[in-house]
Amino acid sequence: MKVTISREKLLEGLTAVGATIPAKTTLPVLSNLMVETTERGLRLSGTDLDIAVSMEIAAEVDAPGAITIPAKKLSEIVRELPPAPIKLATSGEQRITLESGRSRFKLLGLPKDEFPAFPAVKFTNPWKIRSSEVQKLIAHASFAVSVEESRPILNGVLWELRKDVMRMVATNGHRLAKMETPWSGTSEATDFIVPPKALEQVRRLFPADEDLEIAQGANHLGFRSPFTAVYTRLIEGPYPNYEQVIPKDNDRVAIADKAALTAALRRTSIVASDQTHRIRLAFNTGMLKFSVQTADVGEAQDEIPVRYTGDALEIGFNANYLLEILRYIPTDEVKLTFKAPERAATLEPEGWSDPAKYLCLVMPLRLVD
Amino acid sequence: MPRIAVLPNAVADQIAAGEVVERPASVAKELVENALDAGATTIELVVEEGGRALIRVSDDGGGMDREDAQLALQRHATSKIHAAADLVGVASFGFRGEALPAICSVSQLEIETATADGAGTRVRAAAGAILAVEDVARRRGTTVSVAQLFYNAPARQRFLRGARSEWRALADAVTTIALTRRDVRLALAHDGKSALALPPASSLRARLAGLWGGRYAEELIDVDDVYGPTHVRGLVERPVEVGTQSRRVHLVVNQRAIRDGGLTRAAEAAYRSTIPAGARPSLFLELTVPGELVDVNVHPAKTEVRFRDRWPVERTVEQAVRRALGTLDSAAGAGQRFWGGATLSAPLQPPTVDLEVLRAAPAMDDGSLFAAGDAEWDAPRGATVMSAAAAGPAPAAAEAAEPPVEVPPLVQLRRTWLMFEREDGIVLIDQHSAHERVLFEKFMQALERGEVPSQRLLFPMTLHLGPAEADAFEANRESLERLGFEIDGFGGHALIVRAVPMPHPRFDAERCLRDSLDALTGDRVAGTAARHERLAATVACKAAIKAGDALSGDEMRALFAALARTTLPAHDVHGRATIVHLGWDELERRFGRR
Question: B18-37 burial, b if ≥16 CB within 10 A, otherwise e?
Fold first, then answer.
């Protein structure tokens, strides 16, 4: 293998693929990245066995070939090089030389055969989706997944493809985020449960204006655009019936200024318990009062004006859950709905002109008086 | 003939002897105490056949003149008090004037005494009657020999045990005195063999080292605390060592060795949750209580005292021991610790304590594990809440803001231990044990106050239980609800869990509940307090992070701070060590630097 490539292109590829390469691994070849020549240039690939990412970058190929190179060393070197063309050449199965100007490096790699094969996903009849649409769903839903390992199914984001809509849902059992956007690309309903780490790569690596091809293998999902591909293992199992827990009859409605609500929550939650972040909200006509009492820390009170209809209500929440959701609410005002202090509350954007629909749901904390 | 007669003196003395002189051990005790009251600095005991044949106590005390030597054998003859008013606040060991005559009445007794080197007196008596008074040449001091104990009281003699058993009791009695009066040189020989040879000791630890070896003494933890007028000091066993060797309890109130179930229980209560149930710690505690608050004239053998108000004294003992267990020193040591000369040569502490000085600085936690340990004596938290609640302490103190805990840089080792450096060495914290301790105290508080925030679940969990687990659930249902579990029975053995506590972000409620019910199966613990403790310990164990969980820097710091705020950071709820301390000296030794 012998190629010449610009430093910027190589660095771009290394940054894209590097995020997937595990920092610590028991399988040494996984800390390497695969470098192989293609008709259009050079393909860089990395995997942690759950997610695989590959990216093709333009390069001048003098002799075709492939090798794996320690990813961290390579990107550190490239980052320190001046902006000048870089020559990569293999000598034997395991050595690669890198030259740029007067700098010369020899790196020890591993033979390409040791690199795990990418998941077999056939793009014969793929779904086609605008990447900005998928990315919008990812950005608004995947934060809500569970990080706890006890229910692996909740560690993934549910992605539903329907006849005229697609939808992503994520929950950790205490709060839930759901976004759906109009889409017509399939006739039969399909569901995936996707690890959020893979979705993050999808959000990061594909330009917003690209059309993505998405296809399903035996237990994998592949995303690809002309130059980039992301493969991920899917999480198996039935996703809990989230429709059932979304309240339909919440009759107490508050509309609040998102910035004011966020600021008050942030202030008062400073004295909330480190573990539960418990905060008490009291809704009255026109006014929302915040109060926090933590045994070993102290107390806080605050209030902001809101548009509230319904009977007075006191309800407890984990302030972090509310703050997190508010970060993703795309509008300046947020609509909150409630039924009772022990029932789920919802948060939605208020006055959103987007065709997409966004709904978040939080379960309250029990208040002890 | 009248049916009621005044008993002859000899008979009355024999009866009195039954109270004071039960067996050789009590004879030895009385004689040694007499020697101490006479100002002896060296006391030698010679014992034969467990004291049945001979008990000889020699001292270098003040001695007696001829007249006193004869008077001493009469009942209620004492040099120690002169009027009833002196009884209050009596500081000498003996004062009732019963001992010598009582012993004399049931043995062949010989006193050799001299008030100065040279001319002295020998008094020989048997069965209470003086047989001879002679001149003798001897050093200053007194030697009392008691031979053929109970030779004239066969009824009592029959109740004596074998020589070995009597010897053991006698040695115990002498040991107790040795612990109490550490300033005195003590020697004890049995059947010609030296059994004890104790030089004057500067500290309790040094005396214990003389008795049972330096290793044993070194492993004990210092207790030293003042509360109100009561001062508690001494040494107690490390929780990790409890149960590994025979248990020894030594209680001293105002220099007097006593037995007191209440104080012992109070000290044991301090160990609660740090040692397995049923294990009993060794305790060597000395209390200084103002003389007017304690009555020592209760029991002829003077092994019991009566407190004017016993509750604050017991509470002080519990608090003092608990505080000692809360220090780093109580954590398990790594490697072998060596008996350094430092403790032995420590300056002799005067027995009187400037109480005001100690009270002004109640934070006597130089040895406390965490620089900013809890300083509020009056705000017991965690496991002590139970007892404190009964006393109705000021809750306002508990509300007060806690000082921030200074967290040193922490490293996680093998996803199991947190390590940090301290001035005197390396400290390792077991993350699971530490978290367990934190949660245990939190859950105990919750059980007492019922104040745990509980997170409602979007998807209620369904648990299917076996019959035994279902029983365990029913037995603990209310307590589980107080811990934040909101559970509906669902007919048969299915439960629906609608809300769970969220003690930490990695909490796996379902597994915790299932494992806890499993562990509680077949439990029959009596008493609400004990049941709460058991439940809190079980749930804490199941809820805590495990060994093998990688912790972020923030998580480590939070755990450290939370642990620092617990009352007993050094011990987990199963009696294992939470904290292991590896001193620099130990490290240096291993590297051959010392």
Answer: eebbbbbbbbbbbbbbbbbb
